[in-house]
Amino acid sequence: MKKAFTLVELIFVVVVIGILAFALWPTKQPTQALEAARQIVAHIRYTQHLALNDDKFATHTDTGGTSSIAKDWYKRLWRITFSNLTADKDCKIGGWRYAVYQNIAGDLSDKGQPNGTIEAARNPAQAGKVLSACYSGLSTNTSDELNLSQTYKIENIDFSGFGTQGIIFDELGRAYPRGEWDAPYGNKHKFSQDNGSFGRITLSAKDGSVAKILVFAETGYACVENVDLGCEAPANNP
After folding, report:
1. Cα dihedral sign for 215, 218, 220, 222?
2. 80-89: long-range contacts (C-beta < 8 A, 24 or more apart)?
3. Are 97 and 82 a contacting pair, CB within 8 Å?
4. Of 54, 139, 140, 181, which one has the greatest count of Cβ atoms within 10 A?
């Protein structure tokens, strides 16, 4: 008489099959756009962290420059800006890139990029590097991963609700569309979507993937958008 499998043997076989299926089943890898979005969100939050810990308000006048710090202190706030540049003698690779910096040099006019390493934030993940991709006049000690077209094959970025390609944070961590202000705060403390409460950054990559980032004006909170105005789970959205 042929011996049948015992219950313990059957359970063992099922467990082994389950382990093999889990190990061999292909896992879904993040798309190029999603990887880029997660990195940008981390750096937006770091920009806000710098602003919260570096109050730019000043009551004195810098006589060595053409602009009064007491009058224009709000132009010095920490920001993150994006640019789509062509290759030049300083930067051999063009495309979309971004930088995290404070605006403190010269006449305080914001050129959309750091005025050298003195303005760029230090990269907390890479000693000796700054949180900026390569720009004209800033091509040493830069972070290659901030060139989104080179690293993540990003082909287009849409800034819905911003009006400008960047975000500025005040000392309370509130977010503003980047731009030249005629007065501190004023009516600039808003985005143009949902009655000014948030802005959306949409990334489109070469592999056809699309990822969206939400930035909320009042709190400055940023996250990768999952569904309509929903944020990605914390495990994937640090």
Report:
1. negative
2. 80/43, 80/44, 80/47, 80/166, 80/167, 81/110, 81/112, 81/113, 81/165, 81/166, 81/167, 81/178, 82/157, 82/159, 82/165, 82/166, 83/112, 83/113, 83/135, 83/165, 84/157, 85/135, 85/136, 88/136
3. yes
4. 181
pTM reported for the whole predicted model: 0.80
Print pLDDT tens along the chain (238 aa): 556 667 777 777 777 777 776 666 555 567 999 999 999 999 999 999 999 999 887 776 655 554 566 677 778 889 999 999 998 888 989 999 999 999 887 767 777 889 888 999 999 999 999 999 999 889 899 999 999 999 999 999 998 877 678 888 888 898 887 764 444 455 454 555 455 578 899 999 999 999 999 998 888 999 999 876 678 776 555 5
Q: Within 10 Å of residue 17's Cβ, how many Cβ atoms?
A: 10
Diameter over CA atoms, the chain: 103
